[in-house]
Amino acid sequence: MLLKYACIYFNSPKIFLKTHLLALFVEFFETLAKNIFCCYYNNMKIRSARYLTSVVEKDKLLSDGVCEFAFVGRSNVGKSSLINNLCGVKGLAKTSSSPGATKMINYFDINSGEARFVDLPGYGFHKAGKKNQKLWAGLIEDYLTSSKNLKLVLFLLDIRHKPTELDHIMLQFLIETKRNFIIVATKADKLSKGAQHNAVESLAKAFGISKQIIFTHSSLNSQGKAEILEYLG
Questions:
Q1: pLDDT tops 60 at residue 23
Q2: β-strand 181-186 against 150-158: which pairing, if any?
Q3: CA 209 to CA 185: how far, in whole Å?
C-alpha cells in the first residue's frame, strides 16, 4: 500500500500516473491473493464475532472465498464451548446438555468478513432417528468434500475417553480428502496435567499422528486458547 503514496515524490505527471496505476495494480493483486490463499498471511486475532447463518442443504453452502475453520466431532464433545471460548463471546454458539443438538451447519463471521468459524453437526448420536442421522452425516461429508473456503479442520475429542470407531473413521476421511486438521482434546480441566500428558501420548499413538498437532483445551479456564489461535493464524 505504500506505493500509493510514492507518487508524491515525483513531479512529472507521467511518472505520477504510472506510479498511481502501479499502486492500483498491486492493490488489486493483494486483494486477489488474500482470497486465493484464504487469509494465510493474517494473524488470528479475533476482534469481533457474530452468528451469520445456518444451512441444511449442500447447494446452500457458502462459497465466496472467505477463509473458514471447521469444527467437527462427536455429539456433546464441546464444539460450541470451544467456539465461544476462542471468540470470547459467551453464548455465541448455543451449547446444550443434550447430545445431537446441532442439526445444521452453523456459520459464524469473524472480524467482519476476514474469516469464518463453521460448526458442523455432531456425529454418533441419533435421537432424532436414522433419517436425520443420515442427513447430518451427509451434510458433514458434503461440506468437507466440496468446500473451497475450508482452510483447517479442528477435530475435537474428549480427552477423557479413547477414540471411538467413528472417530477413527472421521480421521481417515480427513486424511483421504487431504484436509488440513488439528486435534483439540477438550475438557482438559477434568484431568491432572500428568493425565493430560498421558492422554495426548495415547491419542498420538492411536491415530499414528504427531503430538505437535494435538492441543489440549478447557472452556472453563481457557487452557490452550492462545496456542490454538496462534496455530490458526
A1: no
A2: parallel
A3: 14
Domain ranges of the chain: 3-36, 49-232
Give helix 79-87 / helix 225-232 axis angle, nearest 10°: 80
Question: What's the CATH architecture for 49-232?
Answer: 3-Layer(aba) Sandwich (3.40)
- Nearest Cα to Cα of residue 224 among 232, 233, 216: 216
In angstroms, the CA 186 to CA 75 distance is 13
In contact, 122 and 76? CB cutoff 8 Å: yes
Confidence of residue 43 (pLDDT cuts 50, 70, 90): low
Residue 103 has pLDDT above 50, yes or no: yes
Amino acid identity of residue 179, one-letter, is R
Residue ranges of alpha helices (H) inside 7-129 are 13-36, 79-87
